[in-house]
């Protein structure tokens, strides 16, 4: 029977799990933690226990995994037919994983246009195989024909791993495929590894709102699926001697989608936070929407972009397009100034590729400092106000 | 000269007392939109530094204006010359104890900000490393206890505890929980003489109108308290005095005229299990007032009854379209002519539902509709209703700011008057008559449960501004005649000095002055607050 | 998290309805106002979740379903979508076939955004994610506007279909007094695994392909230079950094 297991010989009776349990089902009896009715298997106690005395065990159901082999990347094209960078970023990681696993790296690509150029690009980047399907069925930006094709291919060729970029398209397609294949999917991974002992794909992502990374596995179901946000991994370097093959695929019957794309237009500004050269980010420490406004004024005055960490979007102080972090934009500016951001892992995941990060926070123990090259322990609003005052002073002098 | 004064550790007097310059210009203003002048400023971090500043000013005969976060609306914190003593760096919660009833009490420096204080109480998160062992022990109990709550809720949550104590702040929940005074258990106050008053509730009580206060390190103050009877309404006008009163109650609400508070003990209570807010909409004022009169008698668990008149609602409708910051405001349908916000606190859901049901029935009985209501039962929804309520004064301020650009003389004209319960209909009739006669634009909102409505006059030009001020003065006289108070929550400060005089008369004003002189013989502190300046100190 | 003990603080705060779901609910109520029909809210969770479903009922939903059972505990998105689908199928026995399923784009605790598409797959219906606006609704189809990967798409779908909606697409209404009182006795069905005919191998922890194998606090090797001095001095350093000096 699946459930919580507390090892009494390891338990030191510290009671941390008792405080951490959101349902209040753990108590200390005779100095050992004991579970009462009502456990919802959230796993917080497992993570809290300093001596790993708690685990969640489940029934093992044997699956036929031996025949699954190969790492697949599901590539995505943009409107003009070019490959999205995230597909190449995943290809780069995929090659490393394939080497560790001792298997092939294949890319799946579908579209209504001629795919020769894109296939060449993938071969040059090091793919062992590119399965390319050109068919009028894919003459749409909607996911339906793509996930239909991918699942059919997966059932036929039995890959061990499928990776998809966590774009909006990917986040619609991947879970659909996972549900159809009755397998597991881990979203927004920041680290992927093959475990040397078990050969399982270790999918690591930030968890529980702040300072923990969770590593997730799909031990018994295949394929193991994961999505990764654009910009998390770097673009791969070209391979010196590419030797991959292109395998053209055909659809036996046209896929007729139930959904119909009536119209499609690109949103006005191509420019996003990911393009920022200088970026100011406000966290909860900014204190109020009024102060956030000051930061926006400062950004405009110095020619910088501005963004926020997630709590400010959740609170309605800024819109989602300004969110920086794991579930927002990934950024890589030359200079990133972080005002009153604590540095939850989900946020750090979005800024890690910045050239230089300066963190400003009143709390010297805030995790943001561990990700920054420079830091100021102080009131971020004071700095903004002083900066604005200087700018105002300069402009008065000039006029 | 500098070295004669109290030796400070670390900071020298020179770095403590800073000459006024442009970078410090903020301290010359407060939320009343008045602006003053000062020669020097200090930001003391502890009582020692306060004593040093006061000693210096005393030796030079320099007047002193005390400030918290400068969110006051009566210019009490605005200096007219002299020295500004700004308490914002005294922002620590210093300790925790429990009284005999088991209530938790937190000792605050005057610069503790209310919103941060409330957050820390909610999260049970204080910096306790420098606390005494006894405090740390009480804090452990506090952490293990049920969720706690500090009831005073002035709209401006960036106010400081010191400021709130100085002007006896109120908010929407004052209807049930009473104003700041009821939640202060102890005040420690430094006087300009260098002596200290440190009194806990129950320790020093007046005998009739005679009060004796011990001073630290030694000495006594013998006070003849003023002989007036305070109006039986919400009141923040002048000193709180009554027969056999507690000394703490005199110090709270003294508007920066008696001394500098360095420690204020705040009493917490258990957080209510349920907090529900309901905005009820009515066709017009008549129906809304009928509803209020019925509800405050018949609904259990009511902690606030707030009103927003048709003009206020219209301002919101316009602001919502004008500014993206206000786009989150719920749309108010055109046929909603008046809003009454009711808040319920309770410990049992069944009783909360009964109270809600009763509100619906009374609304219907008064000519409203239980379907024309917005019910908030969780934090996000309550925050939305609060955003709605706060948007009313904000929109008014923005309107005045716009008009000020065309006519700089114009400022906010907002009344702060309350009357006894049986006079509610009369005072509303008085306001409406006056507005119609003088032909001024207005918006009215406030704590209707306490018969305390802020009528905001919105003049369009200098002439209207003048007529508005005259109307306000006429109202003040009428309100006093009804047994009401002219400064129900914002205090007298400097802007309502004339009103205090018309409320109590010259004799009682002199009695108040005498009390102030006992605390502050050179009359250096808070010049211009409560009474006009008498000669004797450097301007 | 408690900064001293590094554990998650059980702060006694109540759980709330996922903010994204409120926008979905508001959209459902607006469609009902326009075209009629009934709105059912479905959730899988602990018994205390009933309070949240009551909130939805008080806003104008007609019925609610809470799927609650120990067997459902520990579910990942595959097991959750399986269970939700069972609840919906059982509800169809009462009310007839559904036309539209609305979900918030993601949950703010798990934030995978997987439930919508997975549930659609379990139900065998098409899905559209990232919906911003409903442009047309008739008895047979709908046309919606979707914002995905920087493209604004106009998509037409036949019923039945599942939509996931973005934040801030509308202003969720607050309930009124009448609605709150009505919700106290409104139809709120509490169904366990047996009542929905669940295959226990596909529910809860047992039915979850994914599991957490370890958690750790990440090591940081970044050397952070803390700037000293006054605000003005610190600001000078920042300004030089921006110019590209240092």
Q: How is the secondary structure organized here?
A:
The complex is a heterotrimer of chains A (399), B (539) and C (246).
Chain A: E1 3-6, H1 16-20, E2 26-29, E3 32-35, H2 44-48, E4 54-57, E5 71-74, H3 85-101, E6 105-111, H4 116-124, E7 129-134, H5 144-157, E8 161-165, H6 168-180, E9 185-186, E10 191-194, E11 201-207, E12 212-217, E13 224-228, E14 245-249, E15 260-266, E16 278-282, H7 289-302, E17 305-308, H8 310-314, E18 335-339, H9 345-351, E19 356-361, E20 374-377, H10 380-398
Parallel strand pairs in A: 5-6, 5-8, 6-7, 7-14, 8-13, 9-13, 16-17, 16-18, 18-19, 19-20
Antiparallel strand pairs in A: 1-4, 2-3, 10-11, 11-12
Chain B: H1 13-16, E1 18-19, E2 40-42, H2 47-60, E3 64-67, E4 83-86, E5 93-98, E6 104-108, H3 114-123, H4 133-144, E7 148-149, H5 161-167, H6 174-177, E8 184-190, E9 196-200, E10 210-214, E11 220-224, H7 247-251, E12 260-267, E13 269-270, E14 274-282, H8 285-298, E15 302-308, H9 310-322, E16 338-346, H10 349-365, E17 373-376, H11 379-406, E18 413-414, E19 417-418, H12 424-438, E20 442-447, E21 452-457, H13 462-481, H14 497-504, H15 506-519
Parallel strand pairs in B: 2-4, 3-4
Antiparallel strand pairs in B: 1-2, 5-6, 6-12, 7-13, 8-9, 8-12, 10-11, 14-16, 14-17, 15-16, 15-20, 18-21, 19-21, 20-21
Chain C: H1 19-35, E1 40-44, H2 50-59, E2 63-67, H3 77-95, E3 100-104, H4 115-123, E4 127-137, E5 141-148, E6 151-158, E7 161-165, H5 177-183, E8 188-191, E9 211-216, E10 225-226, H6 231-243
Helix pairs in contact in C: 2-5, 3-4
Describe the structure.
- The complex is a heterotrimer of chains A (399), B (539) and C (246).
- Chain A has 399 residues and is α/β, with parallel strands linked by helices.
- Chain A has helices spanning 16-20, 44-48, 85-101, 116-124, 144-157, 168-180, 289-302, 310-314, 345-351, 380-398, and strands at residues 3-6, 26-29, 32-35, 54-57, 71-74, 105-111, 129-134, 161-165, 185-186, 191-194, 201-207, 212-217, 224-228, 245-249, 260-266, 278-282, 305-308, 335-339, 356-361, 374-377.
- In chain A, strand 10 (191-194) and strand 11 (201-207) form a beta hairpin.
- In chain A, 48% of the residues are buried.
- Helix content of chain A is 27%, strand content 25%.
- The mean pLDDT of chain A is 89.
- In chain A, strands 9-13-8-5-6-7-14 form a seven-stranded parallel beta sheet, sandwiched between helices. In chain A, strands 17-16-18-19-20 form a five-stranded parallel beta sheet. In chain A, strands 10-11-12 form a three-stranded antiparallel beta sheet.
- Chain B is of the alpha+beta class and 539 residues long.
- Chain B is built from 15 helices and 21 strands.
- Chain B has helices at 13-16, 47-60, 114-123, 133-144, 161-167, 174-177, 247-251, 285-298, 310-322, 349-365, 379-406, 424-438, 462-481, 497-504, 506-519, and strands at residues 18-19, 40-42, 64-67, 83-86, 93-98, 104-108, 148-149, 184-190, 196-200, 210-214, 220-224, 260-267, 269-270, 274-282, 302-308, 338-346, 373-376, 413-414, 417-418, 442-447, 452-457.
- In chain B, strands 14, 15, 16, 17, 18, 19, 20 and 21 form an eight-stranded antiparallel beta sheet that branches. Chain B has a five-stranded antiparallel beta sheet with strand order 5-6-12-8-9.
- Chain C has helices spanning 19-35, 50-59, 77-95, 115-123, 177-183, 231-243, and strands at 40-44, 63-67, 100-104, 127-137, 141-148, 151-158, 161-165, 188-191, 211-216, 225-226.
- Chain C has one domain: Rossmann fold.
- Chain C is globular, with a radius of gyration of 23 Å.
- Chain C starts with 18 loop residues before the first helix and ends with a helix.
- By secondary structure, chain C is α/β, with parallel strands linked by helices.
- Classes of the chains: A alpha/beta (399), B alpha+beta (539), C alpha/beta (246).
- Chains in contact: A-B, A-C, B-C.
- Chains A and C meet through helix 1, helix 2, helix 6, strand 9 and strand 12 of A and helix 3, helix 4, strand 4, strand 5 and strand 6 of C.
- Strand 15 (260-266) of chain A pairs antiparallel with strand 6 (151-158) of chain C.
